[in-house]
Amino acid sequence: MNDDDIAYEISPELAVLLTRANEVLARIEPWLPPAPPRIDWQTNLACRWRRGPAMGWLQPIGQLNCPPWNALKGIDEQKKAVERNLRQFVAGLPANHILLTGSRGCGKSSLIKALLPRLAKKGLRMIEVDKDDLVHLPDIVAGIAEQPYRFVVFTDDLSFEPGEAAYKPLKAALDGSLAGLAPNVLICATSNRRHLMPEFMAENLETKYQGNEVHPGESTEEKVSLSDRFGLWLSFYPFDQDQYLAIAESWVAELGGTWTAPARLEALQWATQRGGRSGRVARQFAADWTGRQGLKR
Fold this sequence. Notes:
Helix content: 25-40%
Strand order of the largest sheet: 2-1-4-5-6-3-9
Distance between the termini: 92 Å
Shape: elongated
Strand content: 15-25%
């Protein structure tokens, strides 16, 4: 007698249990989240991390919002530094994590996004992660570690409030965790705050003086320790009038318009009404000006 000749009998109790289990599964199945889509990184240049009730997944970004490289004016030194660092990264050479800080609307996130199509053929891919989802960074990295592409994990407008512990997973991933990041992953973040966390006047009272040396207090050291883990740290500053006008002119040309003396005057008025000169303000003016001129044709 072999194994095929052995008959197995299911008891009535077990049969009832199996039937009930199937009924329960049939009721639960419609409520279960769909299986995460399989990402074809050859055709998808970027994804965003979506958080679900039980688990997260990568969602492909169909319509990319990547500004033209040549339209980014007034930040030439920052462009050179970031592009050089990412070219090292996609070439498999040592490269640093990137932190871009400074004035709002001056091109921090635009610079990172503009490099995606510029380096896509060399294997660069991008994953956008919200600040609150950085706790899932180990899961994100684990899912792409074996891919033959080089991934930038991009977090825009990164900042943390007092008592918020969400910065700790990022701090550990950058430099501190025993596991570390996969070699094909690099983190890029932008922030309006230099040290990513609010700074208070009372913290200056913690400063100690030993001889001629100044030693910041523990609160300050904790805040600096996060931003200090980014190897490439670049600052962005408000534009002067000439820089602002050059950016506005480049965007008008990019959008198919014509730069004229009235356009220059209205660009200055637009900046005055908006209360500042920045690349974002210049782009918004260019869209308005080019659109209005198009309606007149």
